[in-house]
Amino acid sequence: MLSWSSTTASTPADLAAITEGTGDGGLPNGRELIDFTNAVGGVDEAALAAARDALCASAGEAFMVDAAAVIANFEMMTRVADGTGARFPNESAGHRTALDQRLDIGHFTSAR
Amino acid sequence: MAFVRGDLADAHLAALRHVAAPGSRFTGARRLQIAAVARDAYLTTGPSRPWERPYGDAPLDVAYRLARHAGTISQEWYEQIVTEGTHPLDWVEVVGIVVAAVPVYAFARAAGLPAPMTPDAIDGEAHGREAAELAPATLNWVPVAAPADRTASVVQALSALPDEWDNLWQLAGAQYMSDAQMADPLWSRGTLSRPQMELIAGRISRIRECFF
Fold first, then answer.
1. Which of A40, B98, B133, B159 is the most exposed place for a label (fewest CB within 10 A)?
2. Which residue in B has a C-alpha nearest to residue A78's C-alpha?
């Protein structure tokens, strides 16, 4: 989804931002978005507050709220997938292999 | 305090009201108990280890693991829980409750807002409503609405219980985008661009070790 939408919007995305949580993904406010997402995924509330403030300062409060909503959505969708054993159809395996390798996700328990 | 657009606030309020109402398999009070476990599991800084079952109560243990350690759940564990006596549709309803509650609290924490008030349970027995016909799926462990495997696995995931399915997608429409909006790769709310949305979607999915 990331590669597809980024290509269509003519803004190449750097998958290292997803796999490593570093860099800016080649996107405006990308560094602040990645820091914010990393902080939501962690347990350090002070770090989360700092990342939230930095994102607001960089892109505005409405932008931060919508970013928080997207993160919340994928806190939801990851649990739908993992709670119901969601998998891709076999016929998609061929074109997924290269992306799975780039994302370094083949070793996850949730890989089905 | 950050301003939250109305459709998003309404969607989260609707999700909590949905949790408090009787479901197909559980009463409103039991559903709120399951949601409270999910909330606490998501927010705690000292979680149990993934393989531990802190409640000795299968729906609560499933809610805990799904809320905190979702990426560790295996088909073998699902089958173990079902073999012990949990009905597969009980499992589906627990998933529906967890995914109704977690995003509400996740959003509040992320945005630096107070957690919303939990509504009181709505009286009444479980209503038993489920899809007209159920079918085993190859794209999910859980039973789904027949015919199976005609749509993406995440789309059919909760289809056995239409109320849970409806709540999931009303939340997705407000938090992320609707099906119609998703069809346009250039659509945005005017804040984040699509690539920015996919960047953080991918990153949080990676942190949660969600292969899908």
1. B133
2. B210
Annotate B39-62 with b (16+ C-beta within 10 A) or e (fewer).
bebbbeeebbeeeeeeeeebbbbb
Structure token pair of residue B72? 């560790």
The distance of A93 to chain B (nearest Cα, Å) reads 12
pLDDT in tens, B13-64: 999 999 999 999 999 999 999 999 999 999 999 889 999 999 999 999 999 9
At B121-133, the pLDDT tens digits run: 999 999 999 999 9
What predicted TM-score, i.e. pTM, was given to this entire model?
A: 0.93
Torsion of CA A41, B174, B202, B113, to 10 degrees: -20
Distance between CA B135 and CA B148 in Å, rounded?
Answer: 6
φ and ψ at residue B119, rounded to 5 degrees:
-70, 160
Structure tokens at A72: 């919340």
Query: Does ipTM come in above 0.90?
Result: yes
Q: What is the mean pLDDT of chain B?
A: 96
3-state helix, strand, coil in chain A (%, to 5): 65, 0, 35
Determine, for residues B198 and A67 on separate chains, whether the beta-carbon distance falls below 8 Å. Answer: no
Cβ pair B111, A52 in contact under 8 A: yes
Give the C-alpha separation, A27 to A10, whole Å: 11
Of A9, A62, A80, the CB nearest to B193: A9
pLDDT of residue B212: 73
